[in-house]
Amino acid sequence: MKPAPFDYHAPRTLEAAIALLARFELEGVEARVLAGGQSLMPMLAMRVARPQVLVDLGKVEGLDYIRADGDALLIGAMTTKTAAAESALVAAQQPLFHAATRLVGHRQIRNRGSVGGSFAHADPASEYPAVALVQDLQFRARGPSGERWIPAAQFFVSYMTTRLDPAEILAEVRLPPLPPGTGWAIQEFARRSGDLALAGIAATLRRERGQCTDVRICAFGVNATAVRLPAAEQALLGRPADGEHFSRAAAIAGESLEEPMSCIHASADYRRQLVRVLTGRCLEEAATRAA
Amino acid sequence: MIRDQLPTSQVRYVGREVTRIEDPGLVAGSTQFIDNLALPGMLHCAILRSPHPHARIIRVNANPALALDGVVAVLTPEDVRRLANPALTAPAGWGTHCLATDKVRFVGEPVAAVAATSRHIAEDALELIEVEYEPLPPVATAAEALADGAPLLFEQHGSNVIQARVYDWGEVDRVFAEADQVVRSSFRWNRVGANPTETFGCICQWDLADNSLSCYGSYQVPSFWGLARSISLNLPANKVRVISQPMGGAFGGKGGARATDIAALLSRKAGGRPVKYIEDRMEYLLAGFGQSWDRHYEAALALTADGTMTGLRVKLIDDQGATAEGYGTISVAKPLAAFTGNYRIEAARYDTTLVVTNRAPTAPYRGYGPPPHFLVLESLVDLAARQLGVDPAELRRRNYIGKEQFPYTIPSGNEYDSGDYAAVLDKALALAEYPALRRRQAEARTAGRLVGISVVSTVEPGVFDWNAYATVGVQGVGVPEGVRVVVDILGNVTVVVGFNLQGQGQYTIAAQVVADFFGLELGAVRVTTAPTDLAPPHFGQGGSRLGVAVSSAVLGACRKLEADFRRVTAHLLGVPLDEIELMDGRFRMKSRPDAGMSLAEVAGLMLGRSDLLPPGMEPNPQASCVWTAPGRNAPDDQGRCRSYLTAANATHVVMVEIDRDTGHTEILKYVVVDDCGTRLNPAMVDGQIQGAIAQGVGAALYEEYVYDGQANPLVTTFVDYLMPTIHEVPRTERDFVVTPSPTTAFGAKGCGEGALHTTPAAVICAVNDALAPLGVALTETPASPQRVWRLLRQAGLG
Amino acid sequence: MTTRQRTTITVNGTRYEREVEPRLSLADFLRHELHLGGTHVGCEHGVCGVCTVLIDGCSARSCLTLAVQADGAEVTTVEGLRDRESGRLHPIQQAFIDAHGLQCGFCTPGFLMTTLELLRDNPEPSDDEIREALGGNLCRCTGYQSIVESVRLAASRLRG
Ligand SMILES: Cc1cc2nc3c(=O)[nH]c(=O)nc-3n(C[C@H](O)[C@H](O)[C@H](O)COP(=O)(O)OP(=O)(O)OC[C@H]3O[C@@H](n4cnc5c(N)ncnc54)[C@H](O)[C@@H]3O)c2cc1C
Ligand code: FES
Ligand code: FES
């Protein structure tokens, strides 16, 4: 299990990194960005990823920060998950993202794995894309022709594929605040604790005069990307925040899934069931947090 | 018992919880596992493996690989056909060469190999080798293997059946005909396996000058593998030297027969340069000896109206995988050693069919065959309890072999040495607060929760003998385990053994016996492994035998030394021999205990003053002892023999809860009481038990090698082979009973495999107790959430 | 072929400078370039934790890190645990021996390094915190109970 050979560059600046990527693209050389390596390294070792060149962001200055931007939060792509998990700012302002971070893998993985890497990797079983869709995260991509902001709803294209161009680098993630009074929850089902989820749900909702508003439900681990479940959200909008309606929304969540994935640990119908169960549980949990 | 054996006024080590002498190197990271070893000029091997479950090999062209910079040698099927023989198997004739020569029979089967200056380059080179295959229809399951007109894996046999054999013990048909109750069920045990954290590795060097071979590696049973290599590689056995390195666990077939042959032949082709091969985890999961027990059972238990068990019928179809090279067959034979478990069952039938399929070959795994067998037996007992309306603990108690009945011969022929099953059960029930536990369960059920409890008892046959495996073609009685105890001129003691570290702590056991025997500090005793050409006859770890075997052999060697040293002392002091005794490390006069000589003095004299020795005495302060279990005999036509020397036993009480929505099983309580006789080092026994429980939980709830309908393996990484982490293994409450074995020196019984015999049955029985009110039952392992959820849905939940 | 990279890594206080192939993992670098064989390898795909070392004080899987990525970093391995002068075992190592926290010992260096980080950050962890911290390390031998006890013992000894 040794990687195929590749060349390696560790530029010091984002500009240099982008220039390298642009050059390799032009030359038809397959280059790949390396962040924490916690997903890429196994793929290299198994030779399922065979880039000719790795451009390591590890030495690029200025990609490792967590800072407030008004009431939003900006996180540099190379910030580790441990830094995010231990940040008081994240804990205080972004409880859902914070909870999601703590569900990722194990300490050793979070110590190395980057925040940006998880979004860029777009593993459908990852917690992060689901949080992105629920909370409308925005992604700052830097490329040869400058920078652009990509909203979460457009960022995730399909299985391990994002809207980023080959010469583009995800530089920063912007997390808008949860509106005041928002209740949130994230739950997942994995065979062992720390494993990637077979299915998971991230949800937020608010309550106005006892009725649910602003319901957002996103499933991960079931389709090629994390998916919002609009039918279930709709079913709850304007309805009382109680067990009966949560169950109904949960049932719809399960049914409304389009062709869930199937693997040895969970068939499509079992994934539907997990989504139903987790949706119900998340809505209950979120409701307890909603003001 | 311990005291009687040791010439000491105070036993300091044997039977005590002492820290292990093997640990300092292990915690320091300095222990020489095979991949830490490098020899001058060493090359690295990588193996090209079949992507097909079943295919004819049309052509292999390895030349492009040879052209790659850094590649020194390649090995092809052609070479292998010329230079090697097919693997030995039991039964004979179901093996292949180390590289597939005519066709491949499973995904991951080696097809070609490369030796290069680095592993990276060797793997690059594999990509250049061209292999042309003609795919053949695969045999994916045992049922397919048995179907009319099934494709054949070994055409020469005309069938995919390795062996079909029915054993009849007692009047089975009569007891079933006369039974008041017969419970029956089918079971499917899916493949699981050892998965030590260290995979197999070796370094082989073929000395071209004298045509001899040295193999360094993680060899669980060194001389056995050495002998097998001499046959597969056409070398005289005394020209194959196996040097076993410390192992990062083994739990069954560690020893890499094919890989050793491949590395050896590559060394030969590379002009005698040493060649290292380290199996990687994906190779291990695909084709290492890490898959065991692929079984389909149909079984029935006969009882009288009062709950007396009278007969047991077990029909087993065992999918051995593509060949018999992994000795998976012996796992079918081993249940004979404890076929009827803890119970007085008068008659039994074992109907076995061993087939080949295009799955990976199976191998031994801790416990060998009994873990699935006991799942079957104990599940039947629970079914019977439910039908009779008797508490499952009570039904077991009624049928236990009574403590006064030992030695007890079971219908399948083995003799249990001793035990007190009721005492073990009582202790377990008390520790679990069983009545309260049942009350908690009743309350939980009222609240709609799915809570189940099991009380499961099993016997662990300990100290295996070859005779147990005669039924699948392994011949022989007796498994010699030898040690040499050497005293140097200054009185330092070294124990030379033929096996290496694997985790169970046998070096410490050897040192404990020596230290107490000669009144030494534990840390002063050195234990070391000799290569096969220098070691006394030995086997090594396997079949829960080494603790007993090594302690017995060391004791025997110490006694021989004692006799010689007494002679020297008596001669020197000019007193009769029986006036001299060994006590607390001194050879002293019985009548004047202050007069005598120390171990060092006697040894020094022996080696330094031959003029003072008794006439005819050799200056040889060392002694060997080769131990084998006494009283073993050859099997009769129904496989009956005294096979395993000891019979430990255990009762586990487990409480689980199943999530009604997801089918997830959580272990709420886990109680273990065992009786393995004298505990030579209680902490180590505890460690064996807890470790085996973890593996049992894995087998019951998490681990499974899955194949698709074309015999393609779907579990090839640790992402999918789910070994329990710290979160999945329950914290257990443990206690024990000690019924010393009358057949071993210190009264110890084999206990290395222990809880793996019990835990899968205990967990699955608890799951089924939880499901019972719903009228569904789980008859397939593991109890994965998805599988349990299907049952819940069938019952209208979920 | 690929260009070797000049790489400087400080391991257990000693600075090493090597020309390495980019595809070399930190685990292989430590084991085969520096001959520090205490860091073991069990899966090479990030699941077992056997290869755990500290990189700049943080536990990390050395099989999931390239040696070149660790350029400029301080790495601590199991060989760096014992006292340099006296050769005495670190209290965590001694606790694993005393509480029988190992059997085959192949996983042990990974557990020791993870424990080192845990007890540095949290000198008095609860059992649940110990379990949480060790969740990424597989052990096939012990069933973990004695490992938890070892960590507890080490923690109490380190607190003095
Ligand atoms: C045992 C284990 C358990 C895990 N469990 C979980 C889990 O529960 N949940 C979870 O979400 N993840 C899990 N992971 C994955 C882990 O979180 C990874 O860290 C993460 O997916 C990728 O981050 P990274 O920084 O390591 O990226 P890398 O592995 O370096 O890169 C991953 C991919 O993203 C690309 N990339 C990375 N950064 C950028 C960037 N800034 N711009 C453009 N492209 C980029 C790379 O080119 C590559 O294709 C687990 C991993 C392991 C080994
Ligand atoms: S070897 Fe690195 S995690 Fe298994
Ligand atoms: S002690 Fe063997 S794997 Fe942990």
Structure in words:
Chain A has three domains: 7-56, Uridine Diphospho-n-acetylenolpyruvylglucosamine Reductase, domain 2; 66-175, 2-Layer Sandwich (Uridine Diphospho-n-acetylenolpyruvylglucosamine Reductase, domain 3), CATH 3.30.465.10; 182-290, Enolase-like, domain 1 (2-Layer Sandwich), CATH 3.30.390.50. Chain A has twelve helices and 14 strands. Chain A has helices at 14-27, 40-45, 81-86, 88-93, 95-103, 107-112, 115-121, 127-135, 152-155, 230-236, 243-256, 268-289, and strands spanning 7-9, 31-34, 53-56, 66-69, 72-76, 138-143, 146-151, 156-158, 161-162, 169-175, 183-189, 199-208, 211-220, 227-228. The relative contact order of chain A is 0.12. Helices cover 28% and strands 23% of the residues of chain B. In chain B, helix 12 (370-388) runs parallel beside helix 20 (759-771). The N and C termini of chain B lie far apart (57 Å). The termini of chain C are far apart. In chain C, helix 2 packs across helix 5 (145-159). By secondary structure, chain C is α+β, with helices and mostly antiparallel strands. At the B-C interface, helix 2 and helix 19 of B face helix 2, helix 3 and helix 5 of C. One FE2/S2 (inorganic) cluster binds at residues 41-44, 46-51, 61, 63 of chain C. Residues 32-40, 57, 77, 104-105, 109, 113-114, 116-118, 120-121, 123, 126-128, 164, 169-170, 196 of chain A line the site of flavin-adenine dinucleotide.
Q: What keywords describe this structure?
A:
heterotrimer; A: alpha+beta; Uridine Diphospho-n-acetylenolpyruvylglucosamine Reductase, domain 3; Enolase-like, domain 1; 3 domains; 38% helix; C: 160 residues; alpha+beta; Ubiquitin-like (UB roll); DNA polymerase, domain 1; 2 domains; 5-stranded mixed β-sheet; 5 strands; 32% helix; binds flavin-adenine dinucleotide; binds FE2/S2 (inorganic) cluster
Produce the secondary structure layout.
The complex is a heterotrimer of chains A (291), B (798) and C (160).
Chain A: E1 7-9, H1 14-27, E2 31-34, H2 40-45, E3 53-56, E4 66-69, E5 72-76, H3 81-86, H4 88-93, H5 95-103, H6 107-112, H7 115-121, H8 127-135, E6 138-143, E7 146-151, H9 152-155, E8 156-158, E9 161-162, E10 169-175, E11 183-189, E12 199-208, E13 211-220, E14 227-228, H10 230-236, H11 243-256, H12 268-289
Chain B: H1 2-5, H2 23-28, E1 43-49, E2 55-61, H3 63-66, E3 71-75, H4 77-83, E4 103-104, E5 110-116, H5 119-126, E6 130-135, H6 142-146, E7 161-169, H7 172-178, E8 181-189, E9 201-207, E10 212-217, H8 222-232, E11 240-244, H9 257-269, E12 275-278, H10 281-287, E13 295-303, E14 309-319, H11 330-333, E15 347-355, H12 370-388, H13 392-399, E16 408-409, E17 415-416, H14 421-432, H15 434-446, E18 450-462, E19 481-487, E20 493-497, H16 506-518, E21 526-529, H17 546-573, E22 580-583, E23 586-589, E24 596-598, H18 599-608, E25 622-627, E26 646-658, E27 665-675, H19 682-702, E28 733-736, H20 759-771, H21 785-794
Parallel strand pairs in B: 1-12, 10-11, 14-15, 20-21, 27-28
Antiparallel strand pairs in B: 1-5, 2-4, 2-6, 3-5, 7-15, 8-13, 9-10, 9-12, 13-14, 16-17, 18-26, 19-20, 19-25, 22-23, 23-24, 26-27
Chain C: E1 5-11, E2 14-20, H1 26-33, E3 52-55, E4 58-61, E5 74-76, H2 91-98, H3 108-121, H4 127-133, H5 145-159
Parallel strand pairs in C: 1-5
Antiparallel strand pairs in C: 1-2, 3-4, 3-5
Helix pairs in contact in C: 2-5
The complex binds flavin-adenine dinucleotide and FE2/S2 (inorganic) cluster (2 copies).
